[in-house]
Specification:
CATH class of the largest domain: Alpha Beta
Shape: elongated
Strand order of the largest sheet: 2-1-3-4-5
Number of domains: 3
CATH topology of the largest domain: Rossmann fold
Number of strands: 12
Structural class: alpha/beta
Distance between the termini: 64 Å
Order of helices and strands: EHEHEHEHEHHEHEHHEHEEEHHEHHHH
Length: 392
């Protein structure tokens, strides 16, 4: 049965709805006006909300606005004794699930409630599937080095805030992994984690990718399209390789961070967005600023919390843990037995020059897993033959 919130300033309406819904087995809570309803909806998750349009202090339309701002996702069924077509359309545009006029009809209430709860179940299932897919791609940060312990402590401290984070480090060090850990540990974890690789998108398309575009704004814009900022609304936007972003896009991103508003390419309307931005780069942005390739004001907006991930060569004590982790992970994925790594073989791996960092290590571990004969351990000979490592 559903947990339902009724927001209405008329006590008889609340009592009537409560009686109907409790008879059907639902759990009911009440609020006398919109402001109290928003407070309740922030404290606990409701499966459905019934909300009156005309109320003192805060009316139903304002409640819908506050729900969007506070990222409250419960479906809202609007009720009103003064309903007009314009009011109904306005409510639906603001995100209401449906609109019911007073006097309330029992069958209409129960049918609308059924549809709303079915939709909510679909939303929950979709979130669960997303988490499963995300879980298959996301792994914990592995390591016991002082550098990794410091990063983990910083992530734990910062994740629950909305502070922007700039992650720096070489290619393959795990910048995206840190970004995902920040998202997973935040109050936005139920929202989307949207990634944009700024280096992989042509400069003439980056603005459309980030901010979306209106139909007809350029030759191939055959329909309206939401950009990554809108897709990440209520969640986290990860700007990977932000140091490769062009100057025009930098200016628009700066404005979006300052005002929490964006404008689609070819559009005139400002769109409010609630997005936490986490950025990453393998470049020295201070040097890029001195060369005139990166805006200093944007740098300061992004680097509220800087996190630097050192290269694997500078934290060799983490290599054995990473090797064991990747062997277990890859063996489970492929249905292969997990081979032991001989001590001398692990020494060779730890002494190698890991210019590609953790990404390169993972690829080498996968190669060794595939090429090690079944039932055998990973020996120094196998490492020397197949790993193609460069020793220091």
């Amino acid at each position: 049965m559903s947990h339902i919130l009724i927001i209405d300033d008329e006590k008889p309406i609340r009592a009537s709805l409560r009686e109907i819904l409790e008879y059907e087995g639902h759990t009911i809570e009440e609020a006398e006006d919109g402001a109290d309803g928003v407070i309740l909806a922030q404290k606990r998750q409701f499966d459905v909300v019934f909300c009156d349009i005309k109320m003192p202090r805060m009316d139903g339309i304002d409640v819908l606005d506050m729900f969007e701002k506070k990222n409250i996702t419960s479906p809202v069924i609007m009720i009103s004794g003064h309903g007009t077509v314009d009011t109904a359309v306005q409510a639906l545009k603001k995100g209401a699930f449906d609109f019911i006029q007073k006097p309330l009809d029992l069958n209409r209430i129960l049918l609308t409630l059924k549809h709303a709860t079915e939709k909510q179940e679909l939303v929950k299932e979709t979130k669960l599937l997303r988490k499963k897919v995300h879980g298959s791609k996301s792994h914990p940060i592995i390591g016991n080095s002082d550098a990794i312990k410091e990063i983990l402590e910083m992530v734990s401290t910062v994740a629950a805030t909305d502070a922007r984070v700039l992650i720096t480090g070489g290619n393959g060090t795990g910048k995206e992994l840190v970004a995902r850990q920040l998202h997973d540990g935040s109050n936005r974890s139920n929202g989307a984690f949207i990634e944009v690789n700024c280096a992989a998108i042509p400069s003439e398309l980056i603005e459309s990718e980030l901010f979306g575009h209106e139909k007809g704004s350029f030759t191939s814009a055959i329909k309206q399209r939401k950009g990554k900022f809108e897709q990440a609304n209520g969640g986290t936007l990860f700007l990977d390789e932000v140091g490769d972003m062009g100057s025009d896009a930098q200016a628009k991103v700066l404005r979006a961070l300052q005002e929490n508003r964006i404008t689609r390419v070819g559009g005139e309307k400002d769109i409010q967005v609630d997005v936490r931005v986490v950025a990453a780069t393998n470049k020295d942005l201070r040097h890029e600023i001195s060369e005139g390739r990166f805006r200093e004001d944007l740098y300061h907006r992004l680097a509220v919390i800087p996190i630097h991930i050192p290269s694997l060569n500078n934290r060799r004590e983490d290599i054995p843990l990473l090797v064991e982790h990747f062997l277990k992970l890859l063996a489970e994925d492929s249905g292969m037995p997990i081979p032991k790594v001989e001590k001398a073989a692990m020494t060779l791996i730890c002494k190698a020059d890991w210019t590609g960092n953790v990404r390169e290590l993972r690829n080498v571990v996968e190669r060794l897993l595939i090429l090690t004969p079944s039932g055998s351990s990973i020996s120094p000979e196998i490492v020397s033959k197949y790993a193609h490592l460069t020793s220091l």
